Amino acid sequence: MVKADLLNGLSEEDAGQVMKLAKRTILTSGAELFHLGDVAGSIYLIARGRLRLTLPMQVRNREEDMLVEERAPGQTVGWSALIPPYRFTLTATAPLETEVLALSREALMEHFAANPGTGYAVSMNLASVIGERLQLFQTMWVREVQRMVEARCA
Fold first, then answer.
1. What is the distance between the alpha carbons of residues 70 and 80, in angstroms, rounded to a whole number?
2. Phi then psi for 75, rounded to 5 degrees?
3. 5-153 in CATH: which number?
4. What pLDDT score was predicted for residue 92?
């Protein structure tokens, strides 16, 4: 079984029950898993490979995908599937062949309703994943503000 940050603290049995809901998908190198703004119906656990999370930005009058972070095996992507308004906030692309385990929102919510302890544990783990992203964006934002202040003072 894949050791996943989303399943931290769950017993093997409880984690196994969640993993029974997963559907394996193989992404070829360069394949897009989801795109910014798409409806988020599933959350994904990376089993093998890597995913690049990017944000499109205008750079010199053209759009470029700017790397936000790269996620590795055991890590979660696509948490927007469990957070309203259920739309992806970044684009995920596989830089090499990558295997992900998709957990649909509907299946998870049904499972959590029947197993509230599992739902609570996964929710707390999800909060940690989201917190990591917020810290990353805060660091990026502070760095950019610092550059702007330094440029004004120069």
1. 17
2. -95, 160
3. 2.60.120.10
4. 98
Lay out the sheet containing 42-48: strands in order across: 23-27, 98-104, 42-48, 76-77
pLDDT tens string 118-151? 999 999 999 888 888 778 777 777 787 788 778 8
In the structure, what pLDDT confidence band is assigned to residue 1 with cuts at 50, 70 and 90?
Answer: low
Residue 26 has phi, psi (to 5 degrees) of -105, 130
Write down the domain spans for the chain. 5-153
pTM of the model: 0.87
Q: What is d(CA 108, CA 118) in angstroms, rounded to the nearest whole number?
A: 10
Provide the 8-state DSSP code for 89. Answer: S
Q: Name the residue with tokens 């559907």.
A: 23
Alpha-carbon distance of 87 to 47, in angstroms, equals: 23
Question: Which amino acid is located at 140 in the chain?
Answer: M
pLDDT at position 136 is: 73
Q: Which residues of 73-84 are buried (b: 16+ CB within 10 A; e: fewer)?
A: bebbbbbbbbee
